[in-house]
Predict the structure of Glycerol-3-phosphate dehydrogenase [NAD(P)+].
Amino acid sequence: MKKIAVFGSGSWGTAISLLLVRAGHKVSLIGIFSDEIELMKRKKENIQYLPGCFLPDEITPTTDLKEIDAEAVFVSVPSHAVRESARLIKPYLRPGCIMINTAKGLEENTGLRLSQVLEEELPGHPIAVLSGPSHAEEVGRDVVTAVAVAAKDIKVAEAVQDLIMTSKFRVYTNLDMIGVEMGGSLKNIVALCTGILDGMNPKDNTKAALMTRGLAEMTRLGVAMGGQPETFYGLAGIGDLIVTCTSLHSRNLRAGRALGAGKPLDEVLREVGMVVEGVRATKVAFELSKKYGISMPITEQAYKVLFEGLSPSEALENLMMRGKKHETEDMGILGR
Ligand SMILES: NC(=O)c1ccc[n+]([C@@H]2O[C@H](COP(=O)([O-])OP(=O)(O)OC[C@H]3O[C@@H](n4cnc5c(N)ncnc54)[C@H](O)[C@@H]3O)[C@@H](O)[C@H]2O)c1
Ligand SMILES: O=P(O)(O)OC[C@H](O)CO
């Protein structure tokens, strides 16, 4: 039994803690909001973010930052809070402990992947990223799930695999951190757009086209940034794209549906009440597409809908009226 810390006490941090206990460990689940933590301690459940999952004694919800002193630390805060979280926990970290980012997003303004943010803030710590089709609501109930863990050093990825893999939670190692992180971040944009389509007037053909062409532009940008095309056809790419574009648990899909039904963005985000990473990801990916000179028509139209007041039906028309294309042109897998 190892002592592991999970920083971030929302739905994913809570599900990761449950997983770690099933894998035989003792967990400090650390949050910064005392009301959230007190409620969790009292109810033995995270009623706010992951209702229906009993928290066993091996999980200690706490606001005490000293509890970050552990063999490994999972970071499960929203992407916009990763840098400030790293700064907050840095003084309490055990020297050389593995840091595992589980948030799916990119840093606004810098366009950095979150592992790069952790590397900048926490030099000397091995960094890994965990991503793939894994809704907290299902992981919390021990539903069979498979994910990828990537690190620059295979030994680090294998150490995380050893730490968290169970008979219900299968972990594949990967050395392509860029591909795994870009897959996990960019699929949220496509899920948001799939939801928008649903909200307009659901049509199956249109959604299949959006998901497929969404994967094509995710791959194009990811490969331009140094990722491997194969990763986008794996769990952290198409796997996560499928679950996020189809699951009723998806916050991005739900937000998209409300946007498609005509609700304003701020009202939608308030209603969902949990982090909707696709909104920020759209902004960052749109900027990255310009920086790398990559065509990302779906992301561009999503940007215009979210931030410039374009209507979803105009956005769809814009996509359909683009110039004629060859299906595999500009695909990363051919561009190697
Ligand atoms: N929920 C899932 O199914 C799931 C699965 C895989 C990955 N993720 C990723 O995990 C990350 C967290 O998502 P979530 O679903 O747990 O979000 P959530 O909305 O359920 O919970 C967010 C948590 O972060 C806390 N928080 C907010 N700002 C903070 C800050 N500045 N410092 C510390 N804590 C802060 C909140 O209090 C809350 O406890 C996201 O990047 C998401 O994409 C989520
Ligand atoms: O609920 P979402 O849309 O934030 O997606 C959660 C996970 O990333 C699914 O793998």
